[in-house]
Amino acid sequence: MIRAAPVSRSCCSINRSAPRIGNPSPARSGADGRSARLAACGYCSHVSTEPLRCAGALIADPEGRLFFQRRSPDRRLFPNCWDIVGGHLEPGETFEEALRREVTEETGWQVSEILGPVGEYRYVGDDGLTRIESDWLVRVAGDLSTPVLEAGKHTEYRWLGPDDLDVLDEHRDVNDGLIRQIAERAFAVLESTRS
After folding, report:
1. Which of 7, 26, 119, 134 has its CA 20 to 30 A from that of 183?
2. 101-121 pLDDT tens trace
3. DSSP string of 86-121?
4. Domain made up of 51-194: CATH architecture
């Protein structure tokens, strides 16, 4: 489980790049008052925050490797850590729609095939918010040698095989090895699709 730091940021610092939608609506305040703070910015009043739903893509190439990208050191959540493609669901979005959108936004590629589920993971980020992430093994269309990384969010990428996963342990203390566990599970799913 990922260790959570105390939440001391304002609502708007949770997602500064998110568009503000309409006027804030009243929210029920939880025991910690987080719901009231989150509703204050307008964006958060339209997004379920407890728990946040996320979709993750483990992109497989024809050689049986998986795509990973390093988060920018300026990112609030898991800075400078290796990660898979993915992100939060937008209001009204399905997991599949989010998966397809996130792959295009973060790599410039298009999902061509969803091979199957990798798993569902519950964790608490260092922003103190609980997330439930549904991860999927996918193939994509596009030039796999030149992903278009999302500017300011990712700094590099690597294609890793099953024997290359030690690199994912660089920041194991930040995420308790969750990314490596997800990768290992994805390789098992990938192997089962070849049979």
Report:
1. 7
2. 999 999 999 999 999 999 999
3. EEEPPTT--HHHHHHHHHHHHHS-EEEEEEEEEEEE
4. Alpha-Beta Complex (3.90)
